[in-house]
Amino acid sequence: MKAIKNIGLANVQAVYSGPEGRLWQLLMGEQIHIGGLTSSMDLAERAGIAEGWSGVDLCCALGAGMRFLVRFRKVARMTGVDATRAMLDLGQKRCTEEGLADRMKFVEANVCATGLPATKFDFVWGEDAWCYVEDKAKLIAEAARLIKPGGLIAFTDWMEGPAGLTDEEAKRYLGFMKFPGVLRMEEYGSLLKANSCTVRAAQDTGRFAKHVPLYLDMIEKQLTYDALKIIGFDMALAQMLIGEMRFMQSLAEKGKIIQGLMVAQKGA
User: Fold this and answer.
1) d(Cα 47, Cα 65) in Å, to the nearest integer?
2) Top-tier CATH class for 2-21+31-161+181-206+259-266
3) CA 246, CA 99: separation in Å to the nearest integer?
4) At what angle do helices 64-72 and 36-47 cross, to 10 degrees?
5) What are the residue ranges spanned by the domains of the chain?
6) Nearest CA-CA partner of 71 in 40, 106, 112, 43
7) Residue 258: helix, strand or coil by DSSP?
8) Which candidate in 2, 119, 230, 246 could, as Cys together with 170 as Cys, close a disulfide (CB 3.0–4.6 Å)?
9) How confident is the model at residue 21 (pLDDT cuts 50, 70, 90)?
10) pLDDT mean over 159-182
11) What share of the chain is helix, strand, coil (3-state, %, to 5)?
12) Looking at the predicted structure, is the pLDDT value of residue 18 above 90?
């Protein structure tokens, strides 16, 4: 695992309660993950998420993943857990606006200790957000605790790629993104196995290097004014952000960072 000191939950809450979070929403939409709806559909298909199931979205942000699952997979009920109050409030508002509030529940809690009942859910869901969680071992243990025997853990995440990050690359990348640490796919696999889960799917989606140029194009060619407005028209900050995104693009192109997809099943 590549990790950085002095980055934790408070930093993540600050990001998603402020302008940086709004900037990510501008560039990536409500589904704040690489690939948007296509990525969600792919993950749901790989996992076999079925009609009538109930699930928990850990690090649910705006609840867009939950709304996707209810609309497109006919999931009966979703519970979203997140530690950022601003995200939960906006997510609840959007669920209400879309007429889905009766099938959604939002819980403000640390995803490593949700307080939800054990073995009550058919699946746990996550999309490009577990990279923000400091203790990945506790996160996976909590995910496994929540699902029924035979239940699924299905997630995508920003992971260290097979080419590996140098210490300096990791420090710059993690510091910019406010990630306390990122795992390799095999490290996630080891944590899942340690919690009596069998890995059913594990792969690089191949989307990372293709999508960062899209986000850069939107900043530089279409949404420049919108992005500048969010950051107080600070041109120096804008150039810094663009530079760091280009750095991320170079890491993705070299296979040093990936969007990994994993599906695991809990033993009976």
Assistant:
1) 14
2) alpha beta
3) 39
4) 60
5) 2-21+31-161+181-206+259-266
6) 40
7) strand
8) 2
9) confident
10) 96
11) 50, 20, 30
12) no
